[in-house]
Amino acid sequence: MSDTPTRRSPFSRRGETTGPRATFRQLLPFIFEHRPVLIWVAILSIIGALASLAQPLLVAQVITVVEANEPLGSIVWALVALVIVSGVITGYQHYLLQRTGEGVVLSSRKRLIGKLLRLPIAEFDTRRTGDLVSRVGSDTTMLRAVLTQGLVEAIGGTVTFIGALIAMLIIDPVLLGLTVLVIAVAITTVTLLSRHVREASHQAQAKVGDVAASVERAIGAVRTIRAAGATEREIRDVEAHAEGAWQMGVKVAKISALIVPVAGIAMQVSFLVVLGVGGFRVASGALAVADLVAFILFLFMMIMPLGLFFGAITSVNQALGALGRIQEILDLPDEDAHDRELAPLALMVGEANEGVLPGAPAIAFDDVSFAYAATRQDPADPANETADEHLPEPDVTDRQPVLRGVSFQVPRGQRIALVGPSGAGKSTILALIERFYDPSVGSVRMGGLDLRSLDRAELRAQIGYVEQDAPVLAGSLRDNLKLGSPDASDAACEQVLRAVNLGGVLDRDAAGLDAAVGDDGIMLSGGERQRLAIARALLAAPPILLLDESTSSLDGVNERMMRDAVDAVSEGRTLIVIAHRLSTVIDSDRIIVLDEGRVIGEGTHAELVAAVPLYRDLAAHQLLV
């Protein structure tokens, strides 16, 4: 078995228990990527606002002309033209905002996807896949609301609001004072309520992440779940997460329900006040009927932008709640973020690792110790695995040790086998060679040089790695084979498939290399998936091959054919293999025995049987042909 790190909460930052928070300033880069379109939208919004502001003035003039029994002339046509222009501008502006909103979602997803696929492997050890997928999906979608629900439209709304305010001040300062009093109360109410929207929105998005993670877990293990008769229990567990998301969504809805009606109530109260007081002032002769009508129209124009403003507050706070989860990932360092600090002049290794200290071994471990991060849970509720109950990630002194002072050398061109009981540290050794992790203590060397001084891309180009649970990517045989060798020919692909005894897979489907393998390789058997992963590594023909229990899923006949293929390809190359079968390791140049993270023996099969009791026991009971 591979050495699996202990997991911690996937939701909280290190050292935090309340979840990540985002600021409006962090939102601006996503918006400003579309600055040219937004400037044009703002201009249209201002033009539309000016066209709207002109309408009450024309209505007042129409009333005045009618009262004077004079012909309307072109005033009516001008009013109609303004209405049409305002409608056209509003429609076009709405389209631009919707398109730009989709652009914001796209750009945020690109940034997040790029970051996710460059994160250190340790981050994936401590986070749930479904939650990460949720951040790419639902969290980024929340950013669209910033543009489509009022933020940019608020620019034109501000012009309308200020213009209406000035016009109302000119028409009747007394009525304006009463109106402003009502609006001030509404703004204060919204401000007090909106502070709760961001926190509730973040919690709601975190619950959505829980749902995605639980669904991904259940679907990924659906066969195991059904075979164990656990379908109903899993359904209840997933439904519980869904209900949690629903409850948080309802909480957001409750807060929004208090904010949304405020603008409507403010409009109604203002209208009643203006109508009552304004009617009295008209009756007393202090205000003309035309001016009262114009004032009421300006009142509506002032209240409508206020509604947009309140909506913008809600949508921005909801977006900031989701952005906190997005920004948490974007703020994480890339896998190679600190490489230049470790090695300012990252070196390139030559083909077949030649030219760099030729006399040095291909791989060497020098007193290497390593530990995965451990999870610390709240002692008051040790079974609780929600984000807020996890304590911060411990430092290295609190981690569970996997390797302890491991030292050995792998000469160039030799075949080395790693054996030992489960949890001995075998898979971790391969992970350190691939530099998925760096040692806590000591160093791993290639060609005599510390791996941390080598360029990661060049380092991995020297290594072919086949994992224990060899993944098969959804797609075709060709897609899987050419993952690490995009320029390989079809002939080379077919040759390597037949070399690993997968010719039958090619022949049974008329599509050949285009034959679909299904999600997670479901169209292939376990042995076929393993051999396809080996074929993928062999196609690149790297100077160093790492095989993590690569023949564990094969029967005797296929294992023999596989070993023949590996023997042919590994000639002149360095091979490090983990296996539990005697037939896989007995012909190795040297065997390294590991137990509890330490090297307890090295030598040939005969030497180890004679000198190392653990190896003798493994050979007798586990390493069976």
Please tell me about this protein's structure.
With 625 residues, this protein is α/β, with parallel strands linked by helices. It folds into three domains: 22-172 and 306-334, ABC transporter transmembrane region fold (Up-down Bundle), CATH 1.20.1560.10; 173-286; 363-375 and 398-621, P-loop containing nucleotide triphosphate hydrolases (Rossmann fold). It is built from 22 helices and ten strands. It has helices at 24-32, 35-67, 75-116, 121-125, 129-141, 144-148, 153-171, 173-220, 222-227, 231-283, 289-330, 339-342, 426-433, 456-461, 477-481, 490-499, 503-507, 526-540, 556-570, 582-585, 605-611, 613-621, and strands at 363-372, 400-410, 415-419, 441-446, 449-450, 463-466, 544-548, 574-578, 590-595, 598-603. The strands form two sheets. The chain has a six-stranded mixed beta sheet, with helices on both faces. Helix 19 links the parallel strand 7 and strand 8. Helix 2 (35-67) runs antiparallel to helix 3 and helix 5 (129-141) packs antiparallel against helix 8 (173-220). The radius of gyration is 34 Å and the shape is elongated. The two termini are 18 Å apart.
Number of strands: 10
- Calculate Rg over CA atoms: 34 Å
The name of the CATH architecture of the largest domain is 3-Layer(aba) Sandwich
CATH topology of the largest domain: Rossmann fold
What summary fits the major beta sheet? 6 strands, mixed
Describe the global form: elongated
Name given to the CATH homologous superfamily of the largest domain: P-loop containing nucleotide triphosphate hydrolases
Mean pLDDT: 76
Quick one: CATH class of the largest domain?
Answer: Alpha Beta
The secondary structure category is alpha/beta
Number of helices: 22
Question: Could you tell me how far the N terminus lies from the C terminus, measured between alpha carbons in angstroms?
Answer: 18 Å
Poorly predicted ranges: 1-18, 348-355, 375-397
Number of domains: 3
Percent helix, as a range, is: 55-70%
The proportion of strand residues reads 5-15%
Strand order in space, largest sheet: 6-7-8-3-9-10
